[in-house]
């Protein structure tokens, strides 16, 4: 069971993240090992033929996968994406719902299964994202 304190800590942690703010992620639910969010379609970033851009779908899958891991490890856990594979199944012309489920929390690797559906319920993408657990402080400055 995911505590309300952990949910609140995750939401506080992601609030200042530019991609979360600018793409207007709306967290629908969080439970232990799982996160579900709506990521609105923004016509400024359309792909070919007015569809939701595939790169943005991949970024949404990546981001929500991280949140699913944080439901288990807490937002203080330092993580970085080490692998992302996405298969596009259909175009989306609407907002998408991204549902991420942790497969395993390992000592160093955390794979996550992600499913993306459009507003009509069409399965538009499936992804597997693997995060690497980091140690020590993360430096945010050029080398």
Topology summary:
Elements lengths: L3 H11 L3 H5 L3 E6 L2 E6 L14 H20 L5 E10 L7 E7 L6 E10 L4 E11 L10
Antiparallel strand pairs: 1-2, 2-4, 3-6, 4-5, 5-6
Detailed description of the structure:
The protein is α+β, with helices and mostly antiparallel strands and 143 residues long. It is built from three helices and six strands. The chain has a six-stranded antiparallel beta sheet, covered by helices on one side.
Looking at the chains present, what oligomeric state does this protein adopt? Answer: single chain
Q: Which range does the strand content fall in?
A: 25-35%
Class by alpha and beta content:
alpha+beta
Q: How much helicity do the residues have?
A: 25-40%
Order of helices and strands: HHEEHEEEE
Count of DSSP strands = 6
Mean pLDDT: 94
Give the number of helices: 3
Q: Return residue spans where pLDDT drops below 50 for at least 5 consecutive residues.
A: none
* Rg, Å, rounded: 15 Å
- What is the rounded distance between the termini? 41 Å
Which strand order does the major sheet show? Answer: 1-2-4-5-6-3
Q: Per the principal axes of the C-alpha atoms, what is the gross shape?
A: globular
Give a quick account of the main beta sheet: strands, pairing sense, barrel closure.
Answer: 6 strands, antiparallel
